[in-house]
Amino acid sequence: MIGVQVPRETPATTPPAAQMESGLGPRVVVRDLNAWYGTHQAIAGMSLDIAAKHVTAIIGPSGCGKSTFIRCLNRMHEVTPGARAQGSVELDGVNIYAPAVAWCFKSRTRSR
To answer: What is the DSSP letter of 43?
Structure first.
C-alpha cells in the first residue's frame, strides 16, 4: 500500500524494559479484557497492544464499548455501581488490576 509505514519487528533479544524505554515495544498491553454493567457484557475478550510514543485512536459505532474500554484503562469503570472488569491491563509491565495496585480518585470539586 502506498503511504503505509510498516514498523520493524523488535529483536527477540531485546529485554522488555529496554523495549519500553526505547519506544519499540508496547506501553499498554490488554489481554482478554471483559467488562460488564450488571449482567450486560459491554466488552468481551478484548486484547490489544498500544505502542509507546504513538497516537492511538479508538473508533467505532455508538454502543460498541469505546468509552467502557477507556474507562477500564483509567480504572474508572469500577467506580460505577454494578460495573466490573476482568482480564489484564498492563502499563509498563504492571497489571493495573492486580490486587497490590492501589488507585486514587481525585474529586472534581475545588476547595477555596
So the answer is: E
